[in-house]
Structure formats: structure tokens, C-alpha cells
Amino acid sequence: MATPHINAERGDFADTILMPGDPLRAQYIADTFLTEVKQVNEVRNMLGFTGRYKGRAVSVMGHGMGIPSVSIYAKELITEFGVQTLIRVGSCGAVRDDVQLRDLVIGLGASTDSKVNRMRFMGNDFAALADFELVSNAVAAAKACQVPVKVGNLFSADLFYSPQPELFELMKQYGILGVEMEAAGLYGVAAQYGARAVTLCTVSDHILRKEALSSDDRQNTFNDMIEVALESVLLGD
């Protein structure tokens, strides 16, 4: 049954979904990597599709920017449409010296300055973690695809334009692999509603070194990440 944010019916989504932030990225994934594609959502132009990858049913839908947006879509996909595995595919900024542009980063956990998981956890700290099997499958798929990969802690920021740039040096000290805006919220929703989630990010810029990929390089690394994500889905079957 349709929700305020998704005009689909139960059964329109596969049990596994890839979620980029940009809905046009979702359309690109569907057009480029999937067959037998059917559009299943268009509310607020948050485009969603279901198709097949090497015969396996997979959905893809945008989640917007930030923890509030991804939390809405993840919750509804799990509770109203039966999605059980959510794979965020996005980009992040690096702070560590050993993390390079084009690296694939897998978020085993996600720190955050958001209060959403404390609200869920009665004011206590909640360790926002990815599903271990999904992480393991993604690592194996990355190695098979010969894509450089690092696994560890992300930082999900509420603000894109931070008023505390000194925080990036602290993140470096604590070993944060990448800064993005959604993983901690996605992991909290998955834990609350009994689903599985993982975040895969390509390193599109290095915040402290002030380096950034060109638009062409961003597209190429995005394609590599999507191949890894889809191959990891097959490994889980």
C-alpha cells in the first residue's frame, strides 16, 4: 500500500535495494546495470525502480540528503514494502592520510553528531553498525572486482558546511575513514525494524588535503562501486 512518500504497492520492491542519494543516480543504475526494469516510485521525484541483475531481483531508489531523509525512506521500505537489505551507495570525503581519492570505503560503523539514535535508544549512545555479512560480502566483491577497499568507521554529519572545521583533525586522530551524511541514520533504522544495512562510499574528495575528483573520475568510481554492490548481493544468495 502506498505511503505519503512512496506510491508503490507491496511486492513492487525486491527484498534488496541499492540507495544512492540522488534519484537521477537511481535511474542511471537501473538503466545501466539492470534488466527488465519497472519504475515503482515517483513521489517528490524520488525515483525508484525494480529490475534484475544477472537474473536476481534488485531494487534501486534515491534517499535524498541527510539522516532525516534516508530515515523516512528506509523505514517505509522496511515496514510497508518488505525490504530487508538496504545498501547505501554514495560518496564521502576523506580525512586520513592513508585514504586516497577513488578508494572504496565500507562503513562498518558510523559515528555522528546527530541525536537520532540517542532518541531511539532512550538517551543512551547506540553503536550504529552495519550488518557483518553484508560487509563481508562487499569486501569479497571488491577484491574480486579489483577495487581498492577500506573498512571502518564513517562520520555522518548533520551539516554539509561545517562551522567546526577543526573537527576534521579530530576525526583523523580517531581513524574516521570518510565523512558523509546518512549511514548512522540508516543503521539505526535497520536496527530498530529488524533489517540489514551497509554503506558503500567512494572517496570523491580529501577534506584536509583539499583534493577532489573530476566529474569523469567521479562517474568511473561510481560505476565500480555499483558493480561491487551488485556482486555482493549475489554473494549473499
Top keywords for this entry?
ten-stranded mixed beta sheet; 35% helix; 10 strands; 7 helices; alpha/beta; 237 residues
Task: Report mean pLDDT, rounded to a whole number.
Answer: 97
Measured on Cα atoms, how large is the radius of gyration?
17 Å
User: How many helices in DSSP terms?
Assistant: 7
**Order of helix and strand elements from N to C terminus:** EHEEEHEEHHEHEHEEH
**What is the number of beta strands?**
10
- How much beta, percentage-wise? 25-35%
Shape: globular
Q: Give me the secondary-structure category.
A: alpha/beta
> What characterizes the major β-sheet?
10 strands, mixed
Query: Portion of residues in helices?
Result: 25-40%
| Span between termini | 27 Å
Low-confidence stretches: none
Describe the structure concisely.
This protein has helices at 23-33, 67-81, 116-120, 132-144, 167-173, 183-193, 215-235; strands spanning 16-19, 35-41, 48-53, 56-61, 85-94, 104-112, 149-156, 178-180, 196-206, 211-212. With 237 residues, the chain is of the alpha/beta class.
